[in-house]
Design goal:
This protein is an all-alpha fold and 178 residues long. The chain contains 8 helices and no strands.
Length: 178
């Protein structure tokens, strides 16, 4: 629950309150790592909780939070990668895109390009609406002045356009009416 609270507070721009909620979430994760595992709908695997922390830090912005977002996203990817294949695939892709977004905000286009490839390779059935939406934000960042006329940014934008053209859900064609 603290993870979700942190995300909501970060989205509202409440940095101090979000920091407190992130601390509570980290304490809960540490307790889970020590064998005290809460149950119920408010429990998240440590990798998912780390992804939520990266999302909150990214929302808060600023260089310190962006660097913390990178660290949390890398932790999330490590923890989610240790889980059985296929579990938490959407959270893994979202954490990967948080890492890309933070790296772009920190002007690390090379690092962002490397990490974007993992998501750009997703099969179309895993390209959910939230993932396509996050990818659109990456595309917007690449379209900004910081990456104007940079070949890698243009190449990534082309790959994103192709990726987004084949989402998991598409509108079905309309049947002809008689």
């Amino acid at each position: 629950m603290a993870s979700q609270e942190a995300r909501a507070l970060a989205a509202a721009g409440e940095e101090r309150a979000a920091d407190r909620a992130l601390g509570a979430a980290a304490n809960a994760r540490d307790g889970a790592a020590e064998g005290i595992r809460p149950v119920g709908v408010f429990y998240f695997e440590p990798g998912v909780a780390a992804y939520f922390a990266s999302d909150a830090r990214l929302s808060l912005g600023g260089e310190t939070n962006l660097r913390l977002a990178v660290s949390a996203a890398e932790e999330a990817l490590e923890l989610l990668g240790a889980m059985p294949e296929g579990e938490h695939a959407e959270q893994t892709a979202a954490a990967q895109l948080d890492l890309v977004a933070a790296q772009l905000a920190l002007h690390d286009l090379d690092g962002a390009g490397v990490h974007a490839q993992a998501v750009l390779q997703l099969p179309s059935e895993n390209r959910t609406v939230p993932i396509i939406g996050r990818m659109a934000k990456i595309d917007q960042a690449l379209a900004g002045a910081a990456f104007k006329d940079v070949t890698l940014a243009s190449d990534l934008r082309e790959q994103i356009a192709l990726f987004s053209a084949y989402p998991a859900t598409r509108e079905l064609p309309q049947l002809p009416t008689s």
